[in-house]
Every structure is written in C-alpha cells, then in structure tokens.
Design a protein that fits this description.
Two copies of one chain form a homodimer.
Chain A (H helix, E strand, L loop, with lengths): L3 E8 L3 H19 L3 E5 L4 H7 L5 H9 L2 E6 L16 H9 L4 E7 L12 H4 L3 E7 L7 E8 L5 E10 H17 L3 E6 L5 H17 L4 E6 H10 L6 E4 L1 H14 L7 E6 L8 E6 L16 H13 L4 H16 L17 H11 L1
The complex binds 3-isopropylmalic acid (2 copies).
C-alpha cells in the first residue's frame, strides 16, 4: 500500500499509558480529519527484554526503517539494571538512532505560560523561554571505538570510551541547526569544550567554516560547555538555536528542559537519513524518561507524547494543520486549568492520564 | 628554611586584581597573627605566554611542587584564542593539576544568605544550599590517549579524545568524597553515564565495591549525569557530597555554582599527592574564570580569592583559626550590605575590588 506507515514503540514504565492517549488522538484524526495511515506497534526496552530477551529485535529495526515515522514512548526500567551492558533497555533507542542514522535530535525547551510557576527559576528569568537544542545523536562518545572495560595484569580494571567526530558528521548536524535558525531568530550558538578536547576544537573549526561558506546570514557564536551549563541557569533566554555533540547535548538539553519545570510537556524529534537511501527517517518521543516510580498508576502526563505526535504530523506527514489543531487543544486545556500531578502547583486539583487525554480530545 | 612556602600565580584577566586583595590579607596575617611564610609569585597563562612564549614554564611547575600550597587566580584570555592547542593559556592549570597529581577538586556550592536574591532560582529552592562536588581532575577525557585531529584521505578531518579511568584512579577520588561525607551529612551521590559508557559503568562498580568494603557507614546513591543536571535545577538541596569524573564534574560544578548566583564568592581546592612523594600538594583558586570583559576595571569581586586563601589556611597550613577569622570577616562585610557589581541587586550601591578588600581587612 502507499499509505504512510507509523510504528508505535511505547516501551517501558509510563510509555504504554501515555502512548494510549496519543493513539486516541490518532483515532480521532482518522475518523474526523481523513488521516489515512498504517499503524503498527511493537516492543522495545524492558518490555522487549521480558518477551524476547533482547532490548530490540532486528525485525523491529527493519520495521522502523520501513516506516515513515516512529512514535516512541520511553525505555528504561530498574528491573533490568544488572543485565550485561549490551542488553540494557537503553540499547533500543541507541540502536534505532544509529541504524536509522537519526543524527539530529531537536529538543525544544519551551515554557508554557500557564505553567510559569512550575519552574524552579524565577519567573523573570524564564518567562517566554523558547530555545531549541540540536544535539548530534549517532556519533561522539556514545558510539566511538575503542570502548569497553579490560582487566589489568594486577587484577584491577580500566574502562575506556572514545569521543570521535569527523568533518562530515559535524557539518550535517550543523546544517540542521543553521536551517532551523533561519526559520527562527537567525542565531546559532555552538557548544563544545575545545579548550581541553581536540575533538571540540575540530567541532568549532568545522562549524566556523561551514558558517562562512553557506550560512553567513545567520549569527554564529561559540561557547564552552561548562560556561553554557552556567549560562543556561543564569539567563537562558540569551539562547535561540544551540548545536552540540551527543554527550554535551544529553546533559545540556536535560538541563534546558528542566528550566521549564514541566518535563511532562516537552516533545522531541530525531531526524536523519538511513545510509544508502534518500528517505527522511524520524523518531518522535517525549523528552522525559520512563518514570518507573509512577508507572501503572495512571497519573503520568500524556501531553509530551501528544505533542510528539503533533511534531510528527508536521515534520513527517506533512499535516501542519492537524499539528496546529493539537497544539492549540493542548494549550486550551492548560489554560482551562487542567493539571496532571507533575505540573500541578500545591493545592491544585490533579487529573489522571486518561482524563488529560480526554480533555485534549474534547477540545479537538 | 623550614618556613612554609606559598606560590602565588595570579594569571590572567581579573586574576592579578583579586590576588592583590588576598595578598593584603596575607600581609595582615603576617603582621598581626604571626603567620610566617615564604611568598613567591610567578606568571601563568596568557601572562606567561606574553613574556616566555609558553603558558607555564617548567621551573614554575617545579616551584609549585616544592611549595606547600599554590594560590591561583585564573587563566584564559581571548587574545590567545588562536594559538596552537598545546600553547593555550589553559595548559597552565591542566599541567599543574597533572604534574602535581592534584586528583581531587573540591568545589563547594554554598549560598550566602544575604545573597539569596542573586540566584536565578526561587529562594525556596536554594535557601541554605550547601553542597560539595568532588571532581576527579587528572584523568578522564582531559588526559586520555589517543587524542588529536587527523586528516583523512579525502582531506576532511577526524578529531579524537579518549575517556579512560582505572580502578585506582576512581578509588582514590572516591575516598576523598567518602571522607568528606563523614564530616558532613554522611551522604555521597556518585554521578556517571554508565547506561551509555563502559567507563561510567566501571566508575559505578568501583565506587560500589569501595563503599561496601570501607565506607558502609556512609549512604551512597548513584545518578546518571543527564538526570543530575536536571536534579541540580529541580531540587539542588537533595545533594550533599557528589563525586564524578573530570568532564561531568566540569559542567556540573559550574552549574551548581551558578545556582548560588554568586560565582564571585566561591573558592575551590584541588588536592593530591605528587607521584613518588607522600607530601600533600594543593592548589586553591576561585571557581570563576578570568572574566576578560571586566579585567583591569577594578570592579571584580575579590571574595572568592580571599575565601580560597581561607581554605588554604585550613587545609594546607593548619591554621583553622585564621581561616575562620577570614570567613567571619567576609560574612560580616556581606551582612553590612557591601556589594561588588557581580553580586549587587538592581539599585544597590557597588564597591570596587580594592574597597571590598579594604572592608574585609577592616573587619579583621
Ligand atoms: C536513554 C539514554 C540512552 C538516552 C541518552 O543518553 O541519549 C537519553 O538520556 C536521551 O537523552 O535520549
Ligand atoms: C580552564 C579549564 C581548562 C578548566 C577545566 O575545564 O577544567 C576550568 O573550566 C575549570 O573547571 O577549572
């Protein structure tokens, strides 16, 4: 069939609960807006380990490659904390990124005005915050070789990981950042640790050259990663688009998200092009984790998952209007005062995962 | 002579200005409190590059090794941003750490009550904040081999750095953290990225074993570095002593310091034992950088440098009483309302570097 194909991978913890609410919205889009897609679903992470003894099966990778987009929940479960390194739940997301060559992780940190008080930061510091971190996701120390733990002659051990970046890897993710900046404020801040790491120095050089060649209309600045961690706390609104490597991006984007105080609200997209194809591949997921402590209780916030669906509609399915409808519905629901536990202020009433999903549907 | 030897290394930017104020306090201690030390001073960083064409001379390293303690200002100057990698000003501090084997960097993030409003975080989130990050400083990706940038056959480049940690390196810094925890709240949080990096997995294993063997009276928890970046923003007071590797420590300790809103107030100590000796070596420095933008204007805050001196008196010179006198004087000066520009709220009067130094002296 020529129908667009969506693969749902709910994963672990609260993943299945919040995915259920996103699926309700998909069903509504099918019934009311003529969305015509093939949906399929599979296991990843701990859920896959439990049934198939691996964090993700090769056939799920193949399905994901064949899909137009993947809607992902989250992986990770303390039950599996002592499995061998290559069988941990996280391997699912790492393999998906690598094998689909999803090299650019777009992580917006956007403050929703009605949730201003949820932030640990002063309102004057974060009001209106809206930045976008573009994080490289298939290179760097996450995948570099050599890696591993070896036993030394005296019986003690030595652990090694390798940070590697090539010109080509840096350029392609930087292009994503520069292109995005053109649609936003026209500013990119590139972040590395080039005063200590040669790979960071190369990062800075390559981005500086690319900027001079192809993006001189965009304003480019550079910042050391440690200073960036400070500046995100001191004055986060100085940033618009940021671009950085896999490991710094992991820390800095989590930090940036937390500035909003509402992790349960933030979606993300990871985009790329599988090697040997010219097809765009994409995976959409909430930035929050699997939250095993509240899993199964029906209290998780489904909005990040629903907003991840909205991103998918815009970036992978060419349905910008549906995307806006959903974003508007979420915004109305928040304005009406509905809160799941994670975004409720002391004393505010809390609704369940399903009630929040229903409220978005009702708005639609 | 058997006099204790102190080496002053003011460095770049605001380093010399703030060091001058610390020296005034040393002079007072000599005159009034019977402090009897040999002081010498030398160049590091950009200042050394300008005069000697290297960021630090071997003879300065030798002097530092021979000293009982080093009081360091800060290094780094945009003038030198295009020098070859091995000649950048930062090499001075990196070589000092490595050659004196200063493996444990103690970075307190402590909120001074009169400066509560300087924080970007809500008062209720940071009031009373007092945590200590113990950062490994002679290993990890800062020093691991192979490293460097190579040119590929097609003319593009490849940058590499290597994260390496051995059992011995992890154990010795963890001991510092556990020992400190015994003097504080009895809690240590160890931070790594063991879900992605084998070196992080080894880090967690070694600390878990050491804890079981020698420190079972201390409470040990583990946290992933990305989550830690979030938790430091969400609820920093959950932490007491934290221990982590060189690179994570660089970002997380800068982040933690910024929570206080008053970088200009925070001292640090880096402790170790030069190879082949059983002597304690130590370097004391403000956590803030060289702040080239305000250098030479006489407006920098000298208190972090003065409090670094106080740490030196306690940890290296066995003069706890003098140390307390200084800390009390600083605290009184703050309580009296004196503020340099960096810690002044809008509308508050600002004193100069020299006026702040004089005020501390007057209190003494
Ligand atoms: C689950 C984990 C492997 C992952 C990462 O470190 O990349 C996560 O923290 C993220 O940021 O998506
Ligand atoms: C100056 C620089 C090399 C240094 C580091 O990265 O260690 C600094 O940021 C620090 O934290 O002391």
């Amino acid at each position: 069939s020529t129908k667009q194909k969506i693969l749902l991978l709910p994963g672990d913890g609260i993943g299945p609960e919040i995915m259920e609410q996103a699926v309700r919205i998909i069903d509504w889009l099918k019934a009311e807006r003529g969305l015509d897609v093939d949906l399929s679903e599979d296991l990843v992470g701990g859920a896959s380990l439990a049934k198939h003894d691996v964090p993700i099966r090769d056939e799920v990778i193949a399905k994901a490659k064949a899909a137009d987009a993947v809607l992902f929940g989250s992986v990770g479960d303390p039950v599996w904390k002592d499995v061998p390194f290559d069988r941990r739940p996280e391997v699912a997301i790492l393999r998906l990124r690598k094998e689909l060559n999803l090299y650019a992780n777009l992580r917006p940190a956007k403050l929703f005005d009605p949730l201003l008080s949820a932030s640990a930061l002063k309102p004057d510091v974060v009001r209106g915050l809206d930045l976008m971190i573009v994080r490289e996701t298939v290179g760097g120390i996450y995948f570099g070789e050599p890696r591993g733990v070896e036993t030394l002659p005296d019986g003690t051990k030595r652990g090694v990981n390798t940070e590697v970046y090539t010109t080509a890897e840096i350029e392609r993710v930087a292009r994503v950042a520069f292109d995005l900046a053109r649609l936003r404020s026209g500013r990119v801040c590139s972040v590395e640790k080039g005063n200590v790491m040669e790979s960071g120095l190369l990062w800075r050089e390559v981005i500086t050259d690319l900027h001079r060649r192809d993006y001189s209309d965009v304003t480019l600045t550079h910042m050391l990663a440690d200073n960036c961690a400070m500046q995100l706390v001191r004055d986060p609104r100085q940033f618009d688009v940021m671009v950085t490597g896999n490991l710094f991006g992991d820390l800095l984007s989590d930090l940036a998200s937390m500035l909003t105080g509402s992790l349960g609200m933030l979606p993300s997209a990871t985009l790329g092009t599988p090697e040997g194809t010219d097809k765009q591949a994409a995976l959409y997921e909430p930035i929050h984790g699997s939250a095993p402590d509240i899993a199964g209780k029906g209290i998780a916030n489904p909005l990040a998952q629903i907003l991840s669906l909205a991103m998918m509609l815009r970036y992978s399915l060419d349905r910008g209007e549906d995307s806006e409808l959903i974003e508007q519905a979420v915004s109305n629901v928040l304005a009406s005062g509905l809160r799941t536990a994670d975004i409720a202020a002391a004393g505010e009433a809390r609704v369940s995962t399903a009630e929040m999903g229903a409220a978005v549907l009702k708005e639609l």
